[in-house]
Amino acid sequence: MEVIITGGQGFLGQELCRHLLKKGELKTSSGVMQEVQRICLFDNVAPATTSGVNAHPKVVIETGDLTNAETCQRLMRPNASVFHLAGVMSGAAEKDFDLGVRVNLDGTRNLLDACRAQGASPAPKFIFTSSLAVFGETYVEPGTPVGDTDKIVPKNTYGMTKACGELLVNDYTRKGFVDGRTARLPTVIVRPGLPNAATTSCYSGVIREPLHGVEAVLPIARDLPHPVTSTRALIANLVILHDATWPDRVDRALNLLSRPSSLQQLVDALYEVVAPAEHSKLGKIVDKEDSFLSGVVRGMGSHLSHERAKELGMLEVPNMATVVREFLEDFGEKTVVSNKRQRVA
Ligand SMILES: NC(=O)c1ccc[n+]([C@@H]2O[C@H](COP(=O)([O-])OP(=O)(O)OC[C@H]3O[C@@H](n4cnc5c(N)ncnc54)[C@H](O)[C@@H]3O)[C@@H](O)[C@H]2O)c1
């Protein structure tokens, strides 16, 4: 079977590709396990590296812009499963409304239309990555977690575009054009590389920067709980969502498993994992709260419940010390501490 990953050069696109190459098989829309023979990594940026998963013989690199409907039509293949990960992040979409709407909403519709044009039966699987940012104004009692079926009233443009995408996936599925499933992602930590344009970028930076001997600046209040997940749990759960048998209902969205964590809890986990003798090597952590950004994070819903994800047997998010250890194992090559291991392929 074939897989198309949009946003294939991004953080999660590359990790998902690595996971699928290792796993080797997925459940097709006919319900049978089949070998993954080809993975197309589609992105509007060219690969930063020609090694790693980009060099794997089963991987095909396609460069193009999903806001171009013809490009999406050309990209699509009969019966291919689509993991739609490309998108403009929360900070960038809030700064540039037109870009956010064009990529996150029009681009998603272009892809869904391209799947529809294949006319495949049974309909191909389409995994859409939404976000907990769809929950802005909530109507649950304070302290009550926000569940899968609570009303989605985003408080930013990013969340609005993701909420629209969820509705598109529901209706394209109801019409039989795709077999859609929407995962509402919490913040995935620890993201490697440079900070990105997400408002919640510091939930990774607070671990990543000190481990590289670099100062981490925290624009969000340290005590604010925010739902996070580990990279490994997130990727495994996206694949469980793909392979699952979805109950017969119009709503195709669920909250992926998450664990509320404050920046202070992440700092504590960092200092627990790094040996005391090496604490002095860690980069400084500096508080510079930006009340606007703290407000945006506060408006995202701090506690979620995950009834549907649990029904599907998804993986629990590990504790934060394990999250730090996983980062050191998977991406720790250039960190300043000794307890790291280089990942094999
Ligand atoms: N990482 C997280 O914490 C998180 C949390 C919630 C939701 N999500 C969602 O998960 C998805 C993947 O996240 P990520 O962290 O890998 O993001 P990322 O920014 O690392 O990757 C997104 C990729 O999309 C590509 N892209 C942007 N515009 C495009 C366009 N017009 N055409 C083609 N490609 C385009 C970018 O070049 C980038 O490589 C996103 O849709 C994001 O909204 C992520």
UniProtKB/TrEMBL annotation:
Species of the source: Durusdinium trenchii
Domain of life: Eukaryota
Annotated keywords: Carbohydrate metabolism, NADP
Protein name (record): NAD-dependent epimerase/dehydratase domain-containing protein
TM ranges: none
Coiled-coil region(s): none
NAD-dependent epimerase/dehydratase domain location: 3-190
Pfam families per record: Epimerase (PF01370)
SUPFAM superfamilies: NAD(P)-binding Rossmann-fold domains (SSF51735)
